[in-house]
Amino acid sequence: LKDRQRIAYCQINLGNAYSALGQPDLAIELHQRALALREAMGNRHEVAISYHDLSTVYLWTGRLKEAAEALTKARADFQTSG
């Protein structure tokens, strides 16, 4: 479990770096990988954070529909994480 958490954190950090470097496609791919790991681990709070991270990249690239969908999922996961 700890290894998957570390991998997810690394993917998030790399995704953030690629966002900052102006490479949103790589950022989205890495955030999606982290999201999949977090979903497999079942931590709804961490899943919500991943959806939020994805929404930020989508918003930055003008993909408003995807951004809204990711934020809606983030909100639902935050609410269920208690």
Which assembly state applies to the chains in this document? Answer: single chain
Mean pLDDT: 93
Which percent bin holds the helix content? over 70%
The end-to-end span amounts to 21 Å
Describe this structure in words.
This protein has 82 residues and is mainly α. Helices cover 88% and strands 0% of the residues. It contains four helices and no strands. The protein has helices spanning 2-20, 24-41, 44-60, 64-81. Helix 1 (2-20) packs antiparallel against helix 2. The chain is flat and about 30 Å long.
Any key phrases for this structure?
82 residues, 88% helix
Summarize the helices and strands and which ones pair or pack:
Elements: H1 2-20, H2 24-41, H3 44-60, H4 64-81
Helix pairs in contact: 1-2, 2-3, 3-4
Summary?
With 82 residues, the chain is mainly alpha-helical.
